Amino acid sequence: MEESVRPSYTVSQPPPHIDLQAIPRPVKRDEQPDDGGPSAKAWPADWEARYRAWVIGGDVFITLLVIAISAFVIDRVAPHDMHAFGTMLAVFVSLPASRAWSPRVLGEGAEEYRTLGRGFITAAVLVALGGLLFGALEVQVWVFVVVPAIALVAFPQRYLLRQVLHRKRAKGLCLLPVMAAGSPETVADLIARTRSEVHVGWRVEAACTFSGHGEDRDSGEIDGVPVVGRLEELSRHVRRGGYRVVAITADQYWTPKRLQRLAWDMEGTGAEMVVAPVLMEVAGPRLNVTGVLGMPLLRVTAPMFTGGRRVVKEIVDRCGSALLLTLLSPLLLLIAVAIKLNDRGPVIYRQRRVGRDGATFTMLKFRTMVTNADAIKQTLAEDNEGAGPLFKMKRDPRITRVGGFLRRYSLDEVPQLFNVLSGKMSLVGPRPPLPEETAQYAPDARRRLLVKPGLTGLWQVSGRSDLTWAESIRLDLRYVEDWSLALDLMILWKTFRAVMGGQGAY
């Protein structure tokens, strides 16, 4: 028998000493930091509580109003009918259970709308199950009419509240104080992103780096943000500063053990620690954190190019394009007449574009240039202002008077609805490239061709023609990788706003 390698102790021997002070434990609010300075917990700001109260109050008011009107119309306010009460109870249980009122999702992009939609779907299911359980089979109208009617009013209400919040953030109000910690380069990138996308609600107020300096040893700041210390001192500065978010960016200093220790040290501070992904730029529903073999692992599922959700997208594309063509038919006729009267040339401009898997198709647009525009293009090559292989000019002499108006409001793109109806394009997707553009694509850019090109997309709602080529590619690839139905709906709505404002179109 092998001898045990574990040391044995007799009864007369004292047990080994265990230093309880060395065990990591959360820092309490009334404790002092290591240097004896004051400790400040990051309590939620007053505006956060007020905004959440407005969101909950708006949802409650809309729910009660729609149910009251429905009860009057459907049941004539019958006192014995419990359908209205059951529907109200189902909504008020489902919304918080689906995290639709969680402070972490309010104002957080498509996630807020996704949780709100999940809440109303859950409410509809609860009402249907209640009808089956109590034998009230006439609840169909409450499931298929009343609950969707509440959602139809709740979504615009949420959007209006977010617009109020975003306007305040554009003025420098209602922002969360952020401590950034990482290399000077990655911290600078985070600062630039928070300043360009202020609606997210982050404001980097301080930073920590490995050396305790900025981009050089003589600098004590990064892009105007003060560097308050070294990475090893981060937890102490967080406790003293009262930051709401601690953003960890890439740096060789960070190891799993150091991040774990930092998380322990930050317990009780009220600060949320977020770690920027450094291996790949993937977000959205493809990311899931699971525990395997006692380790937290970040699962990255494959992009969805087929399956049930893609079938739903196809149905929405065909039905949506048919509906829009029907509604816009008078406008299409007026535009066609205006183009014809302008210079007697053809109304529709046909151009070969590259679609899914590299297959070419003929894209339709209203003609906005003179009839010999392609021949003149060769003489304007030196004046190209487009990014990458794109040819763009803010003051293109080939554009007609009518064409300038159509381009400003993207009306020249409307005939592409026929391409969507025929299945060659989608309502939302990457921009349909020219064959000569795809010939210059790098391997990563060719991933844009894995899905159908779209009438609109992330790049259109993020600056349109004002974006650089690299930024356009990044946004299109992000859409290909992280596509979801909720993202499509958000892009369609933002497209309407961008078109109405004529932002970045020329």
From TrEMBL:
UniProt cross-references to InterPro entries, sorted A to Z: Bact_transf, EPS_sugar_tfrase
Membrane topology: Multi-pass membrane protein
Chief location of this protein within or outside the cell: membrane
Cellular component terms (Gene Ontology): membrane
Entry keyword Cell membrane: no
Keyword NAD: no
One MF annotation (Gene Ontology) recorded for this entry: phosphotransferase activity, for other substituted phosphate groups
The entry's keywords: Membrane, Transferase, Transmembrane, Transmembrane helix
Record-annotated membrane-spanning stretches: 53-74, 80-98, 119-136, 142-161, 319-339
Pfam families according to UniProt: Bac_transf (PF02397)
Region (Disordered): 1-41
Coiled coil (residue ranges): none
Subcellular location, record wording: Membrane
Domain Bacterial sugar transferase: 313-500
Family: Belongs to the bacterial sugar transferase family.
Protein name: Exopolysaccharide biosynthesis polyprenyl glycosylphosphotransferase
Organism: Amycolatopsis rifamycinica
